[in-house]
Amino acid sequence: MSAEQNFLPPVPYALPMVRPHILCVEDDAEIAQLLADVLEENGLSVSCVGSAAGMDAVLGRGGVDLVVLDLMLPGEDGLSICRRLRATSAIPIIIVTARGEQIDRIVGLEIGADDYVSKPFNSRELVARIRALLRRAAAPQPATTRERGLAFAGWRLDPAARELHDPEGVRISLTSVEFDLLLAFCRHPGRVLSREQLIELIHGGAAGPIERSIDVHISRIRQKIEADPRDPVMIKTVRLGGYVFTPGVETA
């Protein structure tokens, strides 16, 4: 991240009275300080730690709204941390990596990260992605009467509580991006949606996952709702078209 990128003026944004708390897990002290400066200049509260142990200590005190997680860390690496966090929490996670291989980014998304940025990155982009995730995770819009409950194939999606329940009534954990994608499908059943349309539906033109990451998030949704994720029947791939949600959807 260049000095020029880090001294961009803050992006205008209407923040709530309580500043969102961002936890940056980054072992490079200089980069951590630059991150803290950029985020604080943009109205966010920031804690920086350099290891998994430090992260666990801050999370244990509560009040963290989003984690910015570097992949290259001493001891427990970022991918392991991400997998562990996602097993117990739906907290938004943005992974940051200096690695050039696309596979690291895809693996991070597959194990539950909501988004990623690569070093060197533009500070405006990082701030925009953080805000997009915070808006969805912390401030969902009230459900309309039509959307108080959406049912498909025995499953129930609750837009107000942002919860998914299986046919036995068990709550299934979804990341914020996974929930928004499934909600978009439920709002447009039987319609072929391209990757670009899905990005627009869940982000409204704001910063968000790149086109390739949509495939990874959909793969994770299939693992949670399909009887056989390798042969999906509810979220089908349409060659050269995108995806189509096949079940009928009713108001629950």
TrEMBL record:
Give all residue intervals belonging to the OmpR/PhoB-type domain: 147-247
Q: Name one Pfam family in it.
A: Response_reg
PROSITE patterns xrefs: OMPR_PHOB, RESPONSE_REGULATORY
- Keyword DNA-binding present in the record's keywords: the answer is yes
**Keyword annotations for this protein?**
DNA-binding, Phosphoprotein, Transcription, Transcription regulation, Two-component regulatory system
Q: Which residues carry this modification: 4-aspartylphosphate?
A: D70
Q: Which residues form the Response regulatory domain?
A: 21-134
CDD domains given for it? trans_reg_C
Would I find tRNA processing among this entry's keywords? no
DNA-binding region per Swiss-Prot/TrEMBL record: 147-247
Q: What is this protein called?
A: Two-component system OmpR family response regulator
Q: What is the lineage of its organism?
A: Bacteria, Pseudomonadati, Pseudomonadota, Alphaproteobacteria, Hyphomicrobiales
